[in-house]
Design brief:
alpha+beta, globular, 246 residues, 7-stranded antiparallel β-sheet, 7 helices
Length: 246
């Protein structure tokens, strides 16, 4: 007697109907915060991060509250029910384990030699409040999460600095569905000093950052790279560097 799974696979129309039903159900069904926290705690990915000796949990909102220009970078949490879990990786970590390195150029791998905190990982729940089309995250919200994750990492490496992303290039590979959890790895791989800074500005640097979104099955969903300006000084003074040509 065939199993239920083999029977379903032998009926393409039934399989398609079940997939469609799952997507529609995911678009309509909503979890409350308690459900999200309970389900997230049971994820193997979360358990592995909690047990790892190469990373430690951090509070993104606490990190960013001392950053002079990142207070609203996690603004999407206003429509999210639960803040993402976040973990900071040590500079001696083996990044070939959490990352799918085959799609990352060697020169763009996290650099523990140049940064005290080379990478952060977030586990986020994509709820129905951030959807564009029913059942799918809005592309702009994906950009905000990518931007926020890389800015969080910059803030960890440059406390109380102005943090201003200068460029952001997104590559949307696969759709991200509402109701799903995603793993987000953001890392830094290069930095360079900026000469001739504006008056009142010190320690100006350009950081090169990257971010990958993965499904819990380790499918690469989204990747992005960004140039991030960090500098000490007033927002007005740093804006003069922002508008400068490099």
């Amino acid at each position: 007697m065939p199993s239920i799974s083999s029977y379903i696979l032998s009926k393409p129309s039934l399989l398609s109907s079940l997939i469609l039903a799952r997507r529609l159900f995911g678009a309509w069904y909503t979890r409350d915060a308690a459900d999200i926290i309970r389900d997230r705690a049971a994820l193997p990915a979360v358990k592995a991060l909690d047990k790892s000796t190469e990373c430690m949990p951090i509070d993104p909102t606490y990190v960013l509250k001392d950053s002079l220009s990142c207070n609203n970078h996690f603004g999407y949490q206003a429509v999210s029910k639960v803040n993402p879990l976040a973990y900071a990786w040590s500079k001696s970590a083996d990044f070939s384990s959490p990352l799918i390195t085959g799609v990352i150029p060697p020169k763009r791998m996290p650099s523990g030699e140049k940064f005290d905190v080379p990478m952060v990982t977030l586990i986020d729940h994509i709820n129905e409040n951030v959807s564009g089309h029913p059942g799918l995250i809005h592309g702009g919200m994906t950009t905000v999460i990518a931007h926020s994750s890389m800015s969080l990492l910059a803030a960890l490496n440059a406390p109380r600095a102005q943090i201003v992303p200068r460029t952001l290039n997104m590559d949307y590979r696969k759709p991200i569905r509402t109701g799903d959890f995603v793993k987000i790895h953001a890392w830094l791989y290069e930095k360079s000093s900026i000469s001739g800074s504006a008056p009142g500005v010190t320690d100006a640097m350009m950081l090169k950052a990257a971010v990958h979104f993965y499904s819990l099955e380790n499918e690469l969903l989204v990747e992005a790279i960004s140039d991030i300006l960090v500098a000490n000084g007033s927002r007005q003074d740093v804006a003069q560097i922002e508008n400068a040509r490099f």
